[in-house]
Design brief:
globular, alpha+beta, 170 residues, 35% helix, 5-stranded antiparallel β-barrel
Length: 170
């Protein structure tokens, strides 16, 4: 096989790889813990025993939690709900996410992270995949938490309305 043939064969696979959004996850027990709360991973790659990389297809939604502590307790905690973007589209940078994505929700501080986690649990209790929730709802939740206001719950009726709106717009 010539070099040109090898390049041609590698082209589509490498083009597909650049479309993916990669998230590097670190787990050093009780020091640094990064994990995915929800999302449909397309692949996973182990880097070493404490780090791994997961990939998401374009326009996927996932939740990333980043937590760090020292001997005195929690130093930082963040939760991001991110929608991945297609190549060539604009995006926001997110720590550990390459290249980045559209941030639908971001909260910092463990009490706010816990509120979002309980909100996600309530959505899952309705048997709704959090990945399929209307992006506007994640923005709503972000804005309400930022202003200290209680967010509206996500209901089956809201979800059905979102699905119909999404179907019509496509």
């Amino acid at each position: 096989m010539t070099d040109k043939q090898a390049i041609r064969q590698a082209g589509p696979a490498s083009a597909q790889a650049t479309e993916l959004t990669e998230v590097e996850l670190v787990w050093i027990e009780k020091q640094i813990e990064h994990w995915i709360r929800f999302g449909h991973e397309t692949s996973e790659r182990l880097i070493d025993r404490r780090r791994r990389c997961v990939s998401f297809a374009p326009e996927s939604v996932f939740a990333l939690i980043r937590w760090a502590a020292n001997r005195f307790g929690t130093v930082s905690s963040h939760l991001y709900v991110v929608r991945t973007v297609r190549p060539g589209c604009g995006f926001q940078t997110v720590p550990s996410v390459t290249p980045g994505g559209e941030i639908l929700l971001h909260v910092a501080s463990w009490p706010k992270v816990e509120r979002v986690l309980s909100h996600i649990d309530a959505i899952e209790a309705l048997r709704i995949d959090p990945c399929a929730v209307a992006p506007d709802h994640w923005r709503h939740l972000h804005n309400r938490l930022a202003t200290g206001e209680p967010p509206r719950p996500y209901t089956l009726a809201r979800h059905r309305a979102w699905l119909k709106r999404h179907e019509v717009s496509q």
